[in-house]
User: Fold GntR family transcriptional regulator from Pelomonas caseinilytica.
Amino acid sequence: MNVTLDPTRHAAPQVLEALRAAIISLELAPGIALDRADLAQRFGVSQTPVRDALIRLSEEGLVVVRAQYTTQVSRIDVPAAREAHFLRRSIEIEIARQLAMAHDEAVIAELHTQLARQAELAAKKDFLGFIAADKEFHRLMYVAAGLPRLWSVVVRMSGHVDRLRLLHIPTAGKTESILGAHRAILQAIESSDAEAAQQAVRDHLSGTLASVEEIQQRYPEYLIV
Assistant:
């Protein structure tokens, strides 16, 4: 993990962003030990912003701080993932309804652009880029519904879900399935069919957690079920 901090910004939030991204991307794998002094040296900062970042990440459940300052990247907590997933699905079902009823052409055009970007990344098998574009598709829906702060809440709660998704997405046909689900959501919004938009979200936000057993068989050391 090589990170160059922006000297025009405060160090602490950059350290937090970088560590969180490394955990979510599995660059820092579940169970790996984190040494404050080593991390401070890598970032070129004192141990204070590293400590603060690890405290924040522990509040999100992404790291576990044990006695005598031993810190580890947490294993993927499936019950916590289910809670975060329930929250997100509940919110997005309502967002889809609102967007379908509003039928804002500018919003629809923006979602089409993002969907095309996802398709390009899927064709390249750029899974990290695809997941980032997937998140952006959903973030745009929250923004369009006037709920950007709720998106921030969902992101903070979704670390376990995000790691499960990264483990699952290389599965054959998974990116195509996600693209198809996004097309169904967008088509329903474009057709002003609120009921179809809600059902498309329900169908979409069921894939990864429905495959937990399969993921656990492949990565038993990563999961807490």
The chain is about 70% helix and 5% strand. The mean pLDDT is 93. The radius of gyration is 19 Å. The longest strand covers residues 63-65.
